[in-house]
Specification:
The protein is of the alpha/beta class and 275 residues long. The protein has one domain: P-loop containing nucleotide triphosphate hydrolases (Rossmann fold, 3-Layer(aba) Sandwich). Helix content is 31%, strand content 25%. The strands form 3 sheets. A 6-stranded mixed sheet has the order 6-7-8-3-9-10, sandwiched between helices. It has a 4-stranded antiparallel sheet with strand order 2-1-4-5, with helices on one face. A hairpin with a 2-residue loop joins strand 1 and strand 2. It starts with a strand and ends in a 16-residue tail after the last strand.
């Protein structure tokens, strides 16, 4: 389990996260939600070891994160950031193979590494693009390739410890079908024992796929718990400043969040100019 305890992050005079605690549990999908600037990505960067907190601790499998060798961390934990810049004309399959780098033993990729990369591409519905040049893909397609790279990195369980997948807005730029495909893949990994953390903006996707939801507001954890516990009209209004109805989903065992018209403002009528 990755445990973040009383995390505070400061950049200059700005406090981005304050006294935030959360956990990424093997076998569960944890979603972080909150408005823009709430500290979601900052907390994920602390969990990944990319950002050191000003206060608080991060432990992975009951060991201080900074005490674990970087190569061991990379074998156990993969990260898909919001944006990954790659302008070289690597093929899609070559990009996914980069995820196998922590597992190489002094030589090139083995047949097994290639098989894993191909399987990871298939898992995100990108197998048909294996030979395409990565920069020629659309933004959504590139995002799915980077997810495949992260999957390839943690494809097999380590000799000791657990596996973790950290996803920063994995459904951004994706159409409806691929949003669900990506989260179904993440859900499958959790079922297979992987600890998954995903930052999501769509509350209904979080309600449908997450086991545990961390709600952030102004750098603090406002609430956390199962979707049916935290997704209440009061909590959502307090955090997002917008009234909602929370209903029983007609086909899934989860809440369904429906936004209402704002109670505090009358929608403006657009004015069309003629020329």
């Amino acid at each position: 389990m990755i445990v973040l305890h009383d995390i505070t992050v400061q950049i200059g005079d700005a406090t981005l996260v304050e006294d935030a605690s959360a956990a990424i549990r093997p076998g569960a999908l944890t979603a972080i939600i909150g408005p823009n600037g709430a500290g979601k990505t900052t907390l994920l960067r602390v969990a990944s070891g990319e950002l050191a907190p000003a206060a608080g601790t991060v432990r992975m499998d009951d060991r201080a994160l900074e005490a674990l060798p970087p190569r061991q961390q990379a074998r156990q934990r993969a990260v898909m950031p919001q944006q990954s810049q790659l302008h070289f004309a690597f093929s899609v399959l070559e990009v996914v193979l980069m995820g196998r780098t922590p597992h190489l033993q002094g030589g090139g990729e083995t047949k097994r590494d290639w098989q894993i990369a191909e399987a990871a591409l298939d898992a995100v519905d990108m197998a048909a693009f294996a030979e395409r040049s990565f920069p020629t893909l659309s933004g959504g397609e590139q995002q799915r390739v980077h997810l495949a790279r992260a999957l390839a990195q943690i494809w097999s369980p380590p000799a000791d410890g657990s596996r973790y997948l950290l996803l920063d807005e994995p459904t951004a730029s994706l159409d409806l079908a691929h949003q669900h495909n990506v989260l179904q893949a993440a859900r499958g990994l959790a079922t297979d024992g992987v600890g998954v953390l995903a930052i999501l903006h769509d509350l209904n996707l979080a309600a449908q796929y997450a086991d545990h939801v961390v709600v952030m507001r102004q750098g603090r954890v406002h609430a956390q718990g199962a979707p049916e516990v935290v997704f209440t009209p009061t909590c959502i209004h307090d955090v997002f400043g917008w009234p909602v109805c929370v209903l029983d989903h007609p086909t899934q065992s989860c809440p369904l969040i429906v936004a209402e018209a704002s109670a505090h403002a009358t929608p403006a009528t657009p004015t069309l100019r003629t020329f």
